[in-house]
Amino acid sequence: MATKKETENTAAKKNVKSKKGTETKDGFFTYHGKPLLRCGNEIYYGDTDAPYVVVFRLMDQETLGDLQIAKRVIIELKTNEGKKSRLIRQAERDGLYKAFDIGMFWLEQALEAEQQ
Fold this sequence. Notes:
Elements: H1 4-17, E1 22-23, E2 29-31, E3 34-39, E4 42-45, E5 52-64, E6 67-79, E7 87-94, H2 96-115
Antiparallel strand pairs: 1-2, 2-3, 3-4, 4-5, 5-6, 6-7
């Protein structure tokens, strides 16, 4: 019979292979294969080794039961240079779903242009 630790390790290895909404072995959640990291009211989306990253700043939130729902989100495409990052594009959307839609598009577009 497998121990709890072995079961967790097996589950973690399986999650790394999935593309949508899973936790990787290093502890980051991923969405469409790219890491997500939340720090306060900011969500960082993108690979740390890639030249660009998208930042979602949650400006207005409302409470629904015991959940916080984002109403207004500012999307920023930035260069991934640590503390010296530059702002490339910025927009504002109502809701996290709409913000992710445009943020993912900007990130893919910027990464494809970088490869050419």
